[in-house]
Design brief:
This protein has a single domain (about 10-235), classed as Ferritin. Helix content is about 70%, strand content about 0%. It has helices at about 10-40, 45-70, 95-120, 125-155, 160-180, 195-200, 205-225, 230-235.
Length: about 240
């Protein structure tokens, strides 16, 4: 019989945060699907975004099972105002679709892939490992959706020139946000994680920043470069 790995308060807190994050992702992706319908996006893109929303609900369910197995009993805290996308009412809807496509998918879902690879590598608790196995498999498709959607916006949409200008203007802002989430000040000094916490699918805060910087070099610079954007310049604080 496998040895039972004790779950710390940090483990319970992190898995509860993941439940909340997955519910939020499901709501925001569903909202994006409505916007894409309103913009007249192709049925293939709309089906993809709806499938992603369903994935996020599955992730929330699996994450809650891990949280409960770790001894958690609190309910997720979901502020309703955080469960919808923000509209810039003076801008065309296509501008906000572009913002979500780049910020949430081309940035957030792209870095999520190597982050979950790293989290999964040290995870040995079966209930937690099942979550990370499923999430990693799905995140690859979510990442690819973002870049496919961006290609449609820049190469096929009649508003492509102004959408390109929007990305040039706001990409530094989105990079600043992703750094604040995954590499906040001081995180680089937090390099330790216990073996038990690692077995439950956690990693040291400093590792998030390391993965973020590798993603810049391996993904964002070449991928944005193919579309005509200088991600290295946009990244610079």
């Amino acid at each position: 019989m496998a040895k039972r790995v004790p779950a710390s308060d940090r483990v319970r807190g992190e898995w509860l945060r993941r439940v909340e994050a997955e519910y939020r992702s499901a709501a925001l992706t569903q909202h994006l699907g409505l916007w894409m319908i309103q913009c007249g996006a192709s049925p293939d893109l709309i089906k993809l975004v709806m499938r992603i929303a369903a994935d996020e609900i599955a992730h929330a369910d699996l994450s809650h099972r891990a949280y409960a197995a770790a001894g958690g009993s609190e309910m997720p805290q979901l502020a309703r105002e955080s469960l919808e996308l923000r509209r810039h009412p003076r801008d065309p809807l296509e501008h906000d679709v572009t913002r979500v496509c780049v910020d949430v998918f081309c940035l957030g879902e792209t870095v999520a892939v190597p982050l979950f690879v790293k989290l999964r590598a040290g995870c040995t608790v079966p209930v937690a490992r099942r979550v990370l196995d499923r999430v990693l498999r799905d995140e690859i498709r979510h990442r690819d959706f973002g870049w496919t959607c961006l290609s449609w916006l820049l190469h096929e949409h009649p508003m492509a020139p102004e959408l390109r200008a929007l990305i040039e203007r706001e990409l530094p802002i989105w990079f600043t946000r992703v750094r604040s989430v995954y590499a906040p000040p001081g995180a680089e000094t937090q390099k330790k994680v216990t073996d038990d916490d690692r077995a439950w699918g956690l990693m040291a805060p400093a590792t998030y920043g390391d993965v973020l910087r590798r993603t810049l070099e391996r993904d964002w610079i070449p991928r944005f470069g193919k579309l005509g954007f200088d991600a290295r310049r946009a990244w610079a604080p």
